[in-house]
Design goal:
The longest helix is centred in the first third of the chain and has 16 residues. The protein folds into two domains: 317 residues, Alpha/Beta hydrolase fold, catalytic domain (Rossmann fold, 3-Layer(aba) Sandwich), CATH 3.40.50; 124 residues, Trefoil (Acidic Fibroblast Growth Factor, subunit A) (Trefoil), CATH 2.80.10. It starts with a helix and ends with a strand. By secondary structure, it is an alpha+beta fold. The chain is globular, with a radius of gyration of 22 Å. 23% of the residues lie in helices and 22% in strands. The protein has a ten-stranded mixed beta sheet with strand order 1-2-4-3-5-6-7-10-9-8, with helices on both faces. A five-stranded antiparallel beta sheet has the order 11-15-16-17-18, with no helix packed on it. Helix 9 packs across helix 10.
């Protein structure tokens, strides 16, 4: 099934969509009018970035403030939009100037300027169509701009939000987190008849169990066992293009994928008419965060929302904390609290990465590694090689402080010993301990 036939067979529905999202376009122009502050950097088109089955165009904004190893944010436009317009009329470029990350802007180079989130090719890892083209853009950026593969994120509005969901499902190996402004769950827009429009999904009439939604994501990349990217979801209650029930279905999907409860850990209202819920952790970089905006239609993101997405990604430097998995690079597994236990003294282990709350760690500015939203700390229980590394109530002591070294090792400040997978094991359930530092692969870790 060709991408062109997918887009062209839904002319009437697409026209209706374009009329419906005109408030979105106007809102983006109004809220983004001051986004492109003076800078010597400029938007640049890259014409040969690799495999491009979607026939997309690629634009890159690399600010002068970018460090030697910058993070990457992929920013995906809405239907009728373009990459240059999304660059000019949203706040991501200004935030890139402020925080030093690269922004990659894909451009849907077809009539209607929508991205393919419907075809079977689009819903499969390296299956073809637009997601494969965007993955090529990311790989090009990592390869040619010395970008950090551990800090790649994606965000988008409307069609771009749907693409955000698809990319996190298709490419969990590339992306660390996403922020979707007015989208639908992964696979909700799927069709098999050549149509790129799914009325039932758009109207919020497709409901599934969390397991069913999660299985759609897991089925996009069979055999993948690594960590899953975190997700931030935004939706207006009066959205009449992609209706508000899609937010609840998306929450069901991503909490299931990330192995956390559907019951919020935190519910608050950071701004009037906003209801924010966090799942799996109360921290600013929870596994799943959802923001429902009362009285708002299909007009996201509004002013200041892009900054909150960047904060969710951990790119704003607030508190200098990093949240996410702690990966044992030699084993390809994640630091894990067995059985989601919260009991003091529970010895940690390595396990297949699943993104659950018992694998979600925050490295704080005081060098602690906290879990369960900061309620427990990783603790080196002794000062001799072979001492267990366990969870314990946070007390600020040196046994709960960890120094991250250039070679990827983590040294316990209280003992001077390294975080170590016992006997260099690579199987799930292998215990984690303190041991003399020796630079082996079982002492190398990646945070976030």
């Amino acid at each position: 099934m060709s991408r062109k036939s997918t887009k062209r067979s839904v002319t009437d529905a697409l026209v209706a969509l374009l009329m419906a999202i005109s408030p979105l376009i106007a809102a983006l122009v109004l809220t983004g009018a001051t986004a492109t502050t003076a800078s010597a950097a400029s938007l640049t088109e890259v014409t040969d970035f690799g495999s491009n089955p979607g026939n997309l165009r690629m634009y890159v904004y690399r600010p002068d403030s970018a460090p030697a190893r910058p993070a990457v944010v992929v920013a995906v436009h809405y239907c009728t939009g373009t990459a240059p317009t999304f660059h000019a009329n949203t706040e991501f470029a200004r935030l890139a100037d402020q925080h030093g990350f690269i922004v990659v802007y894909p451009d849907a180079n077809v009539s209607g300027q929508c991205f393919d989130v419907s075809s079977p090719q689009a819903l499969k890892h390296d299956g073809g169509s637009d997601p494969t083209s965007i993955a090529s853009m990311v790989r090009y950026t990592l390869r040619n701009m010395n970008a950090d593969p551990g800090r790649v994120y994606v965000t988008g509005a409307s069609s771009g939000a749907m693409t955000t969901n698809v990319l996190l499902g298709d490419y969990p190996d590339l992306f660390k987190a996403g922020a979707a402004f007015a989208g639908v769950p992964f696979g909700c827009f799927a069709t098999t008849n050549g149509s790129g429009w799914n009325t039932e999904c758009a109207n919020g009439r497709i409901t599934k169990s969390p397991q069913e939604w999660g299985d759609l994501v897991r089925g996009a990349y069979p055999g993948y066992t690594g960590p899953r990217p975190r997700m931030q979801l935004w939706h207006g209650t009066e959205d009449d293009t992609l209706r508000h029930p899609n937010l609840g279905e998306s929450i069901k999907q991503w909490t299931n994928v990330l192995g956390v409860s559907q019951t919020p850990v935190l519910t608050d209202s950071p701004q009037p008419n906003w209801t924010r819920t966090r799942y799996g952790s109360a921290g600013a970089q929870a596994p799943v965060e959802a923001i429902s905006i009362q009285g708002t239609g299909h007009s996201l993101p509004g002013a200041g929302m892009a900054a909150r997405a960047i904060a969710f990604f951990g790119l704003d430097g607030s508190g200098q904390a990093t949240t996410g998995p702690v990966q044992a690079t030699g084993a390809g597994k994640c630091l894990d609290v067995p059985g989601f236990s919260t009991a003091n003294g529970t010895q940690t282990q390595i396990w297949d990465c699943h993104g659950g709350s018992n694998q979600t760690w925050t490295r704080t500015a005081s060098k602690q590694l906290t879990v369960y939203g900061g309620t427990k700390c990783l603790d080196g229980t002794g000062t001799t090689a072979g001492s267990a590394v366990a969870i314990w109530d946070c007390n600020g002591g040196t046994r709960q402080q960890w120094n991250l070294n250039a070679d990827g090792s983590l040294t316990n400040a209280g003992s001077g010993l390294c975080l170590d997978v016992a006997a260099a094991a690579t199987t799930p359930g292998a215990k984690v301990q303190l041991w003399d530092c020796h630079g082996g692969s079982n002492q190398r870790w990646r945070l976030g």
